[in-house]
Amino acid sequence: MLYPTFYRRSDPFALMRSMLRDFDGTYPSLSAPSVFPAVNVWEGDDAVAVTAELPGVETDSIDITVKDNVLTLSGERKPPELPDAARWHRNERSYGRFSRAIRLPFHATDDRVEARLQNGVLRIVIGRPEEDKPKRIEIKAA
User: Fold this and answer.
1) What are phi and psi of 96, to 5 degrees?
2) CA 65 remoteness from chain centre
3) I want to staple 3 with a disulfide (CB 3.0 to 4.6 A). Which of 7, 86, 94, 98 is the partner?
4) What is the Cα–Cα distance from 74 to 101, expressed in whole angstroms?
5) pLDDT tens string 67-103
6) Four-CA torsion 32, 79, 117, 134, nearest 10 degrees
7) Alpha carbon distances (Å) from 40 to 43, 44, 57
8) pTM of the predicted model, to two decimals?
């Protein structure tokens, strides 16, 4: 966004904003770090569902474990193989090992976990144990 000359003089921070915009575009690794993979978690009466964005990650490179009330998702996103003469013009995607630990609202066991990877999105459903499900209390008439 360009500011007219008269506006720049009355806005002492215009130059600073402009410099920060230029700096952020030049050095993306110094901007706010992103967490990989991005996850969404939601809870229903019967289960908790977790989705994780894992583009470019093969299923054999993903490990899912459940212990007590912690779901751990880990793995590795491998960099693409480039020809010897190739050079990067822009490299914004991260590669390497990753790990996310997600605290669940109940103790879970691995026999109640289902996972599917489709179009780069991993969906994990963790079933709530029967003894942990909310139970409706019937009110008796007096």
Assistant:
1) 120, -165
2) 17
3) 7
4) 8
5) 989 999 999 999 888 898 888 888 888 889 999 999 9
6) -40
7) 10, 14, 18
8) 0.68
